[in-house]
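Homework help board

Subject: predicted structure for assignment chain

Our instructor gave us this sequence and asked us to write out the predicted structure in token form, then describe one feature. I got the tokens but I'm not sure how to describe them. Can anyone check?
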Amino acid sequence: MITKIGIWEIDDDGITGKVNPTYDYHIGSGRLWETQDFHGYPVWSWLIHLTEKDWITKENINDLNIAFIFGQNLFKSQRPNLKSNPSLAQTLYIQQQLMDIRVTMDREFPEDEIGTSLFSDESAKSMTRYGQLLNQIKFLPNL
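My token output:
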């Protein structure tokens, strides 16, 4: 191990989140450069994708961000030529809003004890609300 940032350990293979004693989440060093399009904006995939994980919280997301930036810098020799040039600022701005949406959804639609059917009225309401919130995401201009 080279260093540890919160639950994230950085070693020669990439970064690994020590989520709990029986589960690790690994991002290989060569995969730190994956990008995606988010409503027309190129972003760093991992920083957006991991907001969907229930073990990423508002309290620990900054550790992920620091570990990711550290890893990209450490493994910069592996950076491929990218078709797009994602803005870290834009990625983090979107990420923060996605985390706020998760908090809102958890508050407005707490899970019941047995779960909700995908086709229930409650599920339809929550999917509609989620879509409304996603449509409200703002973007930094000129990035």
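Reply (TA_rk): Your tokens look well-formed. For the description, you could write something like this. Residues 3-135 form one domain. That's the kind of observation they're looking for.
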